[in-house]
Amino acid sequence: MQYMLLIYGVEGAEDVDMDTLLEQYGVFSEEAGKAGVLISGEGLDPVSTATSVRVRNGETSITDGPFAETKEALGGYYLLECENLDEALSWAAKIPSARYGTVEVRPVMAYE
Amino acid sequence: MQQRDFTRLFRTEHGRIVGAMLSYTQDLDLIEDALQDACLQAIEQWPSKGKPDNLGAWLFTVTKRRMIDRLRRHDYQKTHPESQAFIDRIQANDELALDDNVINDEQLKLIFTCCHPALPRESRIALTLKTLCGLSTREIGRAFLTSETTMLQRITRAKQKIKRAAIPYQIPQGEQLSERLPSVLEVIYLIYNESHTAMEGQTLSRAELAAEAIRLINVVQHTMATPEVCGLKALIMFHEARRPARQNDAQHYIPLPLQDRSLWHNDAIAQADTLLKASLKQGAVGPYQLQAAISGLHSQAPSWQQTDWPQIYALYNLLVTVKASPVVELNQCVALAYCGKAEQAFSKLTGLSESLLNYQPFFAAKAEIACKINQYDVARDAFKQAIMLTHNQVEKAYLTGKLNKLLNQ
Lengths: 112, 409
Description:
The complex is a heterodimer.
Chain A: E1 2-9, H1 18-34, E2 38-43, E3 51-56, E4 59-64, E5 73-81, H2 85-94, E6 102-107
Antiparallel strand pairs in A: 1-5, 1-6, 2-5, 3-4
Chain B: H1 3-21, H2 28-49, H3 55-72, H4 74-79, H5 83-92, H6 100-114, H7 121-132, H8 137-143, H9 148-164, H10 175-194, H11 206-223, H12 227-241, H13 266-280, H14 287-300, H15 309-322, H16 326-338, H17 342-350, H18 360-372, H19 376-389, H20 393-407
Helix pairs in contact in B: 1-2, 1-3, 1-6, 2-3, 3-5, 6-7, 6-11, 7-9, 7-10, 8-9, 10-11, 11-12, 12-13, 12-14, 13-14, 14-15, 15-16, 16-17, 16-18, 17-18, 18-19, 19-20
């Protein structure tokens, strides 16, 4: 079953420097890859680079910024193939940003 | 057989049968439906055909048969291609009586599933009571002063989440076990606590709810008798031992200082004490063990006046370091006051007023302690507040008596 792991954090609140953090993510991705659970995963550029699109009544509106101003911003994601929620949760706990941010774990909708 | 007897029997067997059936299939709704069918059949047949010798075994056998009936239904077969495999499995094991260890294991898996931290806290309690203890949504709603509709919604959503997020039906592995056990213990503790509430007019017998909590902790202890598991069990045992003195004939709750201690079960208290002491030998001391020790000291005091307050106070000092809460701090104040340090206790208690608004025990304690330091105006007001917030008649009368004594001084 596929799970989306959405990584949220307060930008700038990282507990280590960026180089170290990226290294830690590298280790995580490798481990997940070796375990055969990694489908994909990417880090996102900061929230200041976001643009939001809404189409209402045929009209497209484009605004600067994320869909909502939140304290913790979406910083990246992983798409994993896991047996069950507990397995997905144990991977989520290993994501470096889980130490200071939040990782949301959501099952991907499965169509029959 | 009276309706009440049926209910009691079904409730006793519910957890065991669900546990046994879970070794065949994980479709909890199907199991509960089949069990419901079997119970209805019992209600219909037993009055005229007579009761079977082994009620539990009969229920189990009939549940299996009704399960097969449901599995054979066309609409179920269409959406569940695996159902023939289940039918085969049930029929192959028809003569086999599942042993207690297997049933206990299945129930343990179910407890961990129902108490998963991924489920909202209120749902964990409701789901546990529904699936493991066989309580109806109406009974659960009443026990927790929530509407039946709300309870049903909670339970349904919880089951949906279990399915959609694929919460596994298993005992947690490795590190996750120590992470997940506290949630299970908390649910059992909250269920037991609910059986303790001095709210009047609840139709579900508090003794029955307490019995369910005891059954659940026993299921856990059977396989994992960790210090905190034993601590929680000892805590529950100490409290249960005092139950006979806790209610008068009119079902009114009698507070601890007034209880007739000759009614307490001393053998149970001794057993709980042995269990607690053994658990303390293993090194770590957790909040349930500390609370058990405090309850144990109350249970072993020959009278309210002979309570070992210095020991209790020392235990509360330890408890606040592992389980800080305004209520724990309040109890700490009370113990301190009874140790002869009423002034200190009073100033500490005043600092808690913001966090304990409308909390009856706060005002009752404030009144007592104010009396000890001769602050009679404060005591009078506090007694009045406590009386206003008290729901049970015995305690109300007790506090009113104290207030009157004060007013007549």
